[in-house]
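@channel anyone free to eyeball this complex?
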Amino acid sequence: MIAYILRSLAQGALVLLAVAFIAFSMFRFVGDPVANMVGQEATLQDRQELRERLGLERPFPVQFAIFVGNAVQGDFGVSYRQARPVSALMVERLPATLELAILSALFATVIGVGFGVYAAIRRDGFLANVVMTVSLVGVSLPTFLIGIGLIYVFAVELRWLPSFGRGETVRIGWWTTGLLTESGLKSLVLPVLTLGFFQLTLIMRLVRSEMLEVMRADFIRFARARGIPERTIEFRHALRNTLIPVVTIAGLQLGSIIAFAIVTETVFQWPGLGSLFVQAVQFADVPVMAAYLVFVAFVFVVVNLLVDLTYVLLDPRLRGGKALAK
Amino acid sequence: MHNPSPSPTPATDLETEEKAAIDRQPSLLVRALDSDMMASFRRSKMTIVAAILTLAFFLLAIFADLVAPQNPFDPAQLDLFDSRLPPIWDEMGMLPYLLGTDEQGRDMFSAIAYGLRISLLVGFLGVFLAAGIGITLGLMAGYLGGVVDTVVMRIADVQLTFPAILIALLVDGVAKSALGGQLDEGTTLVVLVLAIGFSFWVQYARTVRGSVMVEKNKDYVAAAKLIGLPAPVIMARHVLPNVMGPVLVIATINLALAIITEATLSFLGSGMPETMPSLGTLIRIGNNYLFSGEWWIVAFPGIALAVLVLAINLLGDWLRDALNPKLR
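replying in thread with the prediction:
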């Protein structure tokens, strides 16, 4: 068990190192970092000083080691465009993205598992068919179209909900939250729906097909033979055995939550990391791009580790100290 | 009159022979129409509708300059007096602007037809590039094994942790800062194709590698090695044709993904500029007019994109099922 966790940690560290290398190469070789940092009127001497201060004269491996050392301490240099430390920019925008991503994941999982179970139990029911058809459309539609559609219906026509920004936020330490004010909560509704919709359809289809599979297994037949009520079979026996692949896929989907967060944040002008990255791409702000890349990799590695640990919670057979077969 | 062609008698013989041959064996077309795939195609009404829609979109894109009433890229043909007109079924609508006009007096129908052309062009080229990179690396990884295999598959693993749209945005950002600031339309198109190609190659590489690992132990590969053919020739001429089946299915489904990726990049402002808009650019422009009530500027490109992607996805699903012998 401990050996297994250690191995996952080592793999994660390797992935992070590889991504850090790409991020560093981008910073070092795309354009001239010095030319991007100093103004037009900087003298040659100024440039040379900055060059030395950044350590650009040293051998490449040493530069990379310094970059990794700084990155571990959260120092990613200074944004070309905003002339502020990248880490400060990211910390400022982190709460907005995390609140959006976690609420969407929660929304997608709860509703997705619920609808999936329903569609599996009432396989040929009218509502189940409607849900499945809608989900097919949901898988095909680009996220930004869903966002625009929701804005048109709920913000332009009905005028129920705001269409951009976070509304009023409350500051708790360095964290700003939109969860404590009415306008903050209202502002969250449309972005969360937009971001969660694709995940919802995916989880729902997965739960449905897995559950249909499990309901055919022998242990369900025996449970029925023992006279256990159908509800108990469905939720205690079948659903629990459905959840392992669902947790895997949901964890892997985190990558796409981040991807769609980029799009969703742009549609709703949400002041999060995704829109920061989109702006960085438009203005070729390489330090911000590099930092965002490392951030995404870090989130991915952490989530992967959590997914591995969840297996142990869900499947008692794995608690006996045996390493998980991959 | 003198007939310069060879004497007529053998020709007639040949014709009758050919005719007899055709009578004995049905032509390729007849056999294609009679195949299992065709049968499963005709069984599914959804697939037929999807195929007709896809074909219609392709034709609209190819013949855009014949079908469209104006060329939206030519400022001389635009009339500012005709700007922001609603669609034809609205009281304010007028001919020839079937779907209304945008703020520059651009006919929405023409803009969609031309935008479709760019969206499809970028989509197809992107898929070709992704398939090219993926097939080459997958072939090499599977056939050569060893270090090549490890390196290629590790890169693929790391890349899979990143969503395609993120990679595409990175490629775009890197290209922008490497080439310096704003790019012209042609360069943007190339950058978009590169971005899509580099984001989607992994799936091809993995699939091809898997099939190659099976194929390379077969007798025909051993025979080719025995007669002394070099490895690249064996890979390209002998192994490749046997692993192309699954690649076709991935390519179809990826075409829809590539079109969505291009549209998303353009929507985010990193894709095609307003002077040469794709569907995504049109949606971005239209989004600015949503609040002033001019819904048609965003709605029609949006619907076109959604229907196109849905139709291609349905075709891809059908192709996957039809080519999968397990599901028959």
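from a first look: Confidence is low (pLDDT under 50) at residues 321-326 of chain A.
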